[in-house]
Amino acid sequence: MIPVLLYHAVSDHPRPGLGRWTVSTDAFDRHCHFIAECGRTPMTVSQYAGALRAGSPSEDTIVITFDDGYADTFAACRRLAAGIGAATVYVTTSWIGQPGMLREQDLIVLAALGVEIGAHSHTHRRLDELAGPDLENDIVTSRRHLTGRTGAPVASFAYPHGNYDRRTRAAVAEAGFNSACAVRNALSHAADDTLAIARLTVAASTSDARLRSWLDGDGPPAPGGELLRTRAWRSARRIRARVLQSPPPPAPAPAVVRVAGDPR
Predict the structure, then answer these.
(1) What's the Cα-to-Cα distance from 60 to each of 39, 49, 87, 260, rounded to whole Å?
(2) Selection from 200, 234, 239 nearest residue 220 by Cα
(3) Nearest to 226 by CA among 189, 190, 173, 183
(4) Global confidence as pTM
């Protein structure tokens, strides 16, 4: 069982609406200590996906990822690079340089430290709700932007919100990515899908005991196929998205009030 950890933000001052997904700096320091002492070998997602394709992932592997590209990811990854090793950061490319987000020069520095920079789409929309051209453009644009900004190949992708389906997965592969991360909140393993790698979300509420159990390989394994409840939730989201995107019905024509003697 391989823990692939998913962080979003590491800060003592969470952004509005992000408190649930923000780990404090003290908690992150403890996590780094636990990871260092657990004896697992850190890999980037691309390295791990390569081991999966070769059928030889080491049982002592750990993969650490960050989604979205918040500015505090920079310090967290430098902390990892100095004491632990590899990590993968998935960046939403339309957010680069926005207030509170990673800048282009931050990505270049992180890449020089050995941090893998991956794509997290261009707009962070739920890709399994998009029509074909919008879906393909969001994926392709993110890869093109990152390649141009870092000067390095971009091989890995992470689905925004963890949402994907067969069509989305195929579009990611067609865009040239050879690995992708989902969420699934389960442990990865040797039979995991390299284009939908399972991750465990580390949230503000994640206790030290829970994290250490994941590092020990104690937790639910990623299922071999998609769960029925996942399909049902996707169907409900798609219906809601179509309703929200539908144009409003035309306004009724104003009533004509006829006045006695009016020739109309």
Answers:
(1) 7, 15, 16, 91
(2) 200
(3) 183
(4) 0.85
**Token representation of residue 60:** 């002592």
**Per-block mean pLDDT, blocks of 10 residues, the chain (264 long):** 97 96 97 95 97 93 98 97 92 97 97 96 96 94 94 95 96 97 96 97 97 94 63 49 52 50 44
Q: What is the dihedral of CA 173, 176, 181, 187, to 10 degrees?
A: 80
What DSSP designation does 70 have? B
Q: State the amino acid at position 232 in one-letter form.
A: A
Distance CA 89, CA 173 (A): 19
Q: Which of 123, 116, 259 is nearest to 180 (CA)?
A: 116
The HSE-up count of residue 103 (CA atoms within 13 Å, CB side) is 5
Q: Which residue has the tokens 């219906």?
A: 239
